[in-house]
Structures are given as structure tokens and as C-alpha cells.
Amino acid sequence: xxxxDIDRFVDAYLDGEFGDDDRAEMERxxxxxxxCAGVAQRHAAFKATLRAAAPRPSLPAGLRARIDAAxxxxxxxxxxxxxxxxxxxxxxxxxxxxxxxMWSTHPFSPVVEDAIAKHQRDLPVxxxxxxxxxxxxxxxxxxxxxxxxRLPPNSVLRGxxxxxxxxxxxxxLVYDVDGEKVSVLVFDPHDLPLEARRTRYVGxxxxxxxxxxxxxxxxxxxxDVGYAFTSDMDEDxxxxxxxxxxxx
Amino acid sequence: MDExxxxxxxxxxxxxxxxxxREQFEREALVHLDALYGLATRLTHDPRDAEDLVQxxxxxxxxxxxxxxxxxxxxxxxxxILHNDFINKYRRRVRDREIAAQLGPGExxxxxxxxxxxxxxxxxxxxxxxxVLSSDVQRALDSLPEEFRVxxxxxxxxxxxxxxxADVMECPIGTVMSRLYRxxxxxxxxxxxxxxxxxLLRDADVIPFPSGAGDKCK
Lengths: 248, 218
Prior knowledge:
The complex is a heterodimer of chains A (248) and B (218).
Chain A: H1 6-14, H2 20-32, H3 34-53, H4 63-73, H5 81-88, H6 94-104, H7 110-121, H8 131-138, E1 155-165, E2 168-177, E3 180-187, E4 198-202, E5 205-212, E6 215-222, E7 225-231, H9 235-246
Antiparallel strand pairs in A: 1-2, 2-3, 3-7, 4-5, 5-6, 6-7
Helix pairs in contact in A: 1-3, 2-3, 5-6
Chain B: H1 15-28, H2 33-44, H3 47-63, H4 74-101, H5 117-122, H6 124-131, H7 134-143, H8 146-157, H9 162-169, H10 173-197, H11 213-216
């Protein structure tokens, strides 16, 4: 550690990110160099001041009550099986427990991961217009028979762009459904395993449901085209959207 | 895989099980309500948006509470959901509003610490810190580009580790470090500027903060 390093390393040192060896080396240097010790001190004082002086906005009256009321309306999430099971399961349930563990650590389908990643990235669209115009735009750009999903009238197509999914062409569409963003990835599902943690039947269609990081994903196949809907809507509303899309 | 084969549907959970989950959520997540609201306010700059953002975050966290990995830092997990939600739903609105308003300077309300000008001349940097107002800090934080602001808040105010911040902001740790580095120095610069404006510090007293080690130190 030399004086030239101080500016670069003082943050990580004060933020407690140094391992024991690096910290000891830094401290040895600070003990012998008053100028660097001064720099470290000023940074530490700055951190402390920031923490002390930054206003902590007080919670608006009623927010807690509103959140409690809203939570009460949400169906309770599945309990945290791992802990519940380990703590309460009698030994006889060991086999069932093993099944649950395997289930809960089952990796997401790559399609689910990709759909969420694309949804989050908020990429700019390349084409806007009515669904039939967007369909025409994609006609010579993707190697499968692209059809936008049919969605209910409260859905507005905001735009679309070319995308890829597992190194194959895909179309990425963004909708606004009652003010909420829903993205739809349309792809060629040939040889691509559609799988998820749960399945539901909507009409004759098998719909795969999954989620991560606060988003729900619904996957299905309709006449040789694959669709992945991603949104932070609850699952029931996703299912409603998908039912309109697959209605004959 | 069909969940019915493995787990009972939610509707079959006993009230006791549901209650326990709600209690866990209370204990592990709802205790961070203040911190969530603080970050939401500093991201949206709008109390109503901040409330909506916090409520959305907690509802989503509750729905996905079974995915929260026990033993990990619940506050960091909640910040991540909040940050994602902000980017998806609010960021564009905030940017539009900011462009429209072309944010003027802050109001400068709040109590200051009394200050002796002679001290300022002796240790200008100390003077800045002693004379700092919470409204200055708020204004300086608001002036930071959003990515720097989030990194600084998560580190200095919420004491998340670099790894946790990287996870919340979905970026590499190196990026967190450079955002912190630049964010903090911009903050220091802004606070110095406010001190000059308020007459706590003369322009001549202003020295680069807190660099200047390299040249004095051999």
C-alpha cells in the first residue's frame, strides 16, 4: 500500500470490504503516514455526516394500515417449505421432504429466465403500430410464422422489436394492459423444452407458470408458435390474458 | 411439473399455516418499511409514487415470500424488488417530470449548526461537515445521477455490502465501486458548493476534497 493507492482504496477500506490482510496493510500505512490518515479520516467523517444528516422521510400516516389491508387481500403465499418441513416434519415424511427439496431447487426453464431478463431490460422498440402492421413488419424478419397474440381490448400494443431466444429468432412485444406492462416473447418452440414449476390447462392448452424476482411468466404453445408472457400482474390476471389469447 | 402432485394448493393451507407465513413476513420484511419508503422517496421524488412503489414492493414480496432464501439479507432482497419495480413502472415518469420541471434549487429549510468563521479558515473541510444541513444533504443526493444516488444510499445509509448492492442493481461489483466513488465525490462537491453559497466557506478555502493526499504525502 502506498500513498498513490489511498484515493482508490479508501472507500472499500472504510466500507468494510477489505479482508483481514488488506485491512492490516492499510492500517499499517495509515499509522505511518499522517497525510493518508487525514484523507481516511475526512472520508470517514463524510460518511458519518451523510448518515447522520440525511433526512429520513417519516412514513405517511395510514401507509402501514393500507399495506396491511392490501396484504390481507392477497392469498397467503405458500409457506416456506424448507424451514417448515425441516422443523416440523416427522421422520416418516423424509421421502416427501426430499421430493419437495428437489422441487424447490428445480432450475428455471431457460425460456423463463430469458423472458424475465428481456422484460426487465426495457429495451427500446423498433416498430409500433396496429397488431397487423407489426405482424407484417416481422414477416420477413423471423424464421417462423409469427402471429401476435390476440389480447383483450384493454391491451394496447406499445411496440415490438426483434429478439433472440436460445440463438433463434424471436419477436418481443410490449403491451400496456390497464397501465401495467406485459411483455410477450414469441418464438419458435421447436425442440425447446417448455417447462415450469406449475401447469394449468386453459381450454386445450397447457399453460406453464413460473416466476422469479417478483415477475410471473406464463408459457404456452399455440399452433407451432411459442409464447411467453411476463408481467408483475398476479397469476390469475395472467391466466385471463392467456385465455383470451388461446380462445378459438 | 404439476404442482398439485407435490404441494397442496394455497386454498388448502390451514389458517394456522397462513398465519405463520404472515407472521414471518411481518418479522422479516415489514420491519424494513421505513428503509423502503426512504429509498422509494429518493427514487421517485414524489410522496404518492413512493407510497405506491412501497406498497407494490411489499405485495410482490409477500406473494413471492416462499422464494426468499432464508438466512440471506431480507432488506437487500426487498430493495432489489423495489429497484426493479421502480425501473419498470416509475423511472420514465420521474424522468419526464424532471425534464419538465428542470429542478430548481432546494428550499434550504432546516436548522443549521452555528459556526465560527475563524474555524472555517483553519479547517475548511470540517466546516463543511459541521455546517451541513439535512436539506443540503437531501438536495445534494437529489442532484446525483440516479445510479450513483442508489449506490450511495444503499452503502452509506443502508449499509449494504458491495455484493448486495451489485445484486440489487444487477451490475458487477466493479461497477458498484465506481458508482460509489463517483457518487460520493459528486456529493462532496455539491456540499462544498452549498457551503460557499451560504457563506460558511470562502471560495478561496475550497480545496479539492478529500484528495490532495498524493502531493502532500511522500
